[in-house]
Write a structure and sequence with these properties.
Shape of chain A: elongated
Shape of chain B: extended
Number of domains of chain A: 2
Number of strands of chain A: 6
Strand order of the largest sheet of chain B: 1-2-7-4-3
Distance between the termini of chain A: 19 Å
Number of helices of chain A: 11
Largest sheet of chain A: 6 strands, parallel
Helix content of chain A: 40-55%
Order of helices and strands of chain A: HHHEHEHEHHEHEHEHH
Radius of gyration of chain B: 31 Å
Oligomer: heterodimer
Structural class of chain A: alpha/beta
Number of strands of chain B: 7
Strand order of the largest sheet of chain A: 3-2-1-4-5-6
Chain lengths: 282, 364
């Protein structure tokens, strides 16, 4: 019996995982957010402390493959910024294939808060160039982005008339699934002392906590969990009534974690029983 | 059109998931399609936004405007970039060393100082900062004095204006002296009767708490804001004040009329308007913070000892390195757990897409 279980076709495990994911997703079983990570709370508090009119720049350094984790973070951040009447600039510094993802979401959330393109927010898109672009934006954003995604000159965008470089930006948030955070930390924080926050995938989070501890960043959203926590905070403050994908995803993930833990415990027990049986036979 | 896009999305998602059963032509098709599309799109973007958008249009503009120097710089950059392709011509392939040397030289020259400062010094400092005492105040004042600012006078004026800082106050100069940030953190114990949770929930300052702060050496301003974090019974008390600063006989002084509101809008550098955020961050977890800092300190020392191979790992060193192994394992475990969570999130993202998209095809 134990032998049979240990040599079980792994596709059965895939099937169990599929059931555990699909059932709560279809039934929409709610799982409440019980605690808020300090890193999420710190980012929320930073934005919460801003006055209307201050500028937040969001860099979307992720592609569609990481959309599941980072797009809910973007949505929640936009709700918070627009609800507080902050002005938002969207860019894609490192990844070009998320221009449409960002642009559409900016337009959608802005519409919900009655914000207009130009005075309240703008989207600059992607420019090849890498590190020099980051550094040049510290001197003059229009030297990197002479035009926005709509091919409109930056001088014709009302909000950009007063925003020349990082000095005029209160916070930069890098939503990343690639190796962009060290660049933002080392050069934009290091050289320009720009207040910085991150939203990253679960895979990257462990290596970036030291930056939070060192005060290089003011907050960090850890993957889908960060999105769910942020959604909870903005809903709690009545900034939006829109249910986010983060909370839905974390609900499903809770069930999945229980299933994974049970599978791991069960397999370990089976492994030890098998080892004991073998040693008894020997 | 949107329906067609959704249909393609559903079909390709199912094609990719079919690999979980076994390798099949549907999966291969989806894989090849993805790689082909990504490569094609990438090339177009690099040519359109990279070469044409960044180089060619600037070259055209400089020619039209007759800016010879700018034109020459762009031409030199283009020629240097083109040297990358000489590696395909064996006779002149040595020329590829020129752009490589420039790229690596520029990159290393720029990266080394910032990487050392941000990745090493900052992190080492944050690991040992629980030893930080009032010296931070002294250091910061020294920094400011080095910049020619009369900080001692400024502090005195804060006091005259009812803003009493504790000896632990940290003064930070942000963005080349345009902003000064003073952070004053207090941690002290108060009893439940002083807290009056009901008042706090209504964002009012309980008298008992006000007195407790005053006793600890911090007079709160009348405009003190209270922010409630409903989790962990935490709350934050923010005291924001804006001062108009101006220079008088080379010293920074406060204007008599100073505003009690937060004002962080952009100001041109010339106006010399500075913003001061003084805030008290008060919460119940002070003890845990100290414990965490000690844990990190011990963990770093033990882990470094494990990787220190100049001494044989026996006796005390052996014991410390064994503790280091535990920390390393915990670190790997946390990283693995986060990785699993990240991968699972991707699966959930696709499943959520399928569940939303399939009914939408039928008008749901």
């Amino acid at each position: 019996m134990i032998q049979k279980l240990l040599s079980l076709d792994r596709r059965w495990i895939f099937l169990i995982i599929a059931v555990v994911v699909f059932v709560p997703a279809i039934l929409k079983i709610p799982v409440p957010v019980s605690t808020i990570s300090n890193s999420t709370q710190q980012l929320y508090d930073t934005i919460e402390g801003f006055e209307p009119g201050e500028v937040v720049m969001i860099s979307l350094d992720y592609g569609p493959s990481s959309m599941a984790e980072l797009q809910p973070q973007l949505t929640a951040l936009l709700h918070h910024c627009f609800a507080k009447d902050l002005r938002v600039i969207g860019i894609n510094w490192a990844v070009f294939d998320s221009v449409l993802l960002g642009q559409n979401e900016f337009d959608r959330v802005a519409r919900l808060h009655g914000k207009t393109y130009g005075p309240d927010y703008c989207y600059l898109g992607y420019k090849p160039g890498g590190l020099p672009n980051l550094l040049d934006m510290g001197k003059d954003i229009s030297s990197v982005y002479p035009k926005d995604v709509h091919n409109k000159s930056l001088t014709d965008i009302p909000m950009m008339k007063a925003i020349k470089n990082y000095d005029h930006i209160s916070l930069v948030v890098d939503l990343a699934s690639v190796g962009s955070p060290p660049f933002w930390i080392n050069y934009v924080y290091g050289r320009f002392q720009q207040t910085l926050a991150l939203g990253v995938t679960g895979v990257m989070i462990s290596e970036l906590y030291p930056a939070l501890d060192a005060g290089q960043i003011v907050g960090i959203l850890p993957g889908l969990l960060g999105a769910a926590e942020y959604e909870y905070l903005i809903q709690d403050a009545n900034y939006t009534m829109e249910g986010g994908d983060g909370a839905t995803g974390m609900g499903i993930q809770s069930f999945l974690h229980v299933a994974l833990i049970l599978i791991i415990v069960f397999c370990n027990i089976a492994f030890f029983i098998d080892r004991r049986n073998r040693s008894n036979i020997a | 059109m949107a329906t067609l896009g959704t249909l393609i999305g559903i079909a390709l998602t199912l094609c990719v998931f079919s690999f979980l059963y076994k390798d099949n032509p549907f999966y291969t098709f989806a894989e090849h399609l993805f790689v082909g599309l990504a490569a094609g799109y990438s090339i177009i973007v690099q040519i359109e936004d990279g070469f044409i958008g960044t180089i060619w249009q600037r070259l055209e503009l400089s020619i039209h405007q007759g800016k010879t120097t700018e034109m020459m710089i762009i031409l030199v950059a283009i020629c240097t970039g083109l040297l990358f392709f000489t590696q395909f011509i064996p006779d002149v392939s040595w020329l590829v060393r020129i752009p490589f040397a420039i790229t690596i030289g520029y990159g290393a020259g720029f990266a080394i100082p910032y990487t050392v400062e941000q990745d090493i010094f900052k992190h080492v400092y944050s690991t040992i900062r629980f030893n930080e005492t009032q010296s931070s105040l002294k250091d910061n004042i020294t920094d400011l004095l080095n910049q020619g600012e009369s900080t001692a006078d400024l502090q005195l004026q804060f006091k005259d204006n009812g803003l009493v800082l504790t000896p632990k106050a940290e003064i930070k100069t942000l963005k080349a002296s345009r902003k000064w940030e003073i952070r004053d953190r207090l941690q002290f114990t108060i009893n439940d009767s002083q807290v009056n949770q009901d008042k706090l929930n209504q964002k009012e300052m309980p008298d008992g708490l006000k007195l407790a702060f005053a006793k600890a050496g911090f007079e709160l301003s009348p405009t003190t804001k209270i922010k409630i974090w409903k989790h962990d019974h935490r709350w934050q008390i923010t005291d924001n004040r804006t001062f108009d600063l101006r220079r008088l006989n080379g010293k920074l002084v406060l204007d008599e009329q100073w505003v009690y509101t937060v004002k962080r809008e952009m100001k041109p550098k010339e106006t010399q308007v500075e913003v001061l955020n003084v805030y008290v961050d008060f919460f119940h977890r002070g003890g845990w913070q100290v414990f965490n800092m000690c844990l990190i300190f011990v963990g770093v020392i033990c882990t470094l000892t494990y990787f220190f191979f100049s001494v044989e790992h026996r006796g005390v060193v052996g014991g410390i390195s064994k503790v280091g192994v535990i920390f390393i394992m915990v670190g790997f475990g946390a990283a693995f757990g986060n990785t699993v969570m990240g991968r699972v999130s991707l699966l959930i993202g696709r499943v959520t897409f399928l569940i939303k998209a399939i009914p939408s095809l039928f008008g749901g």
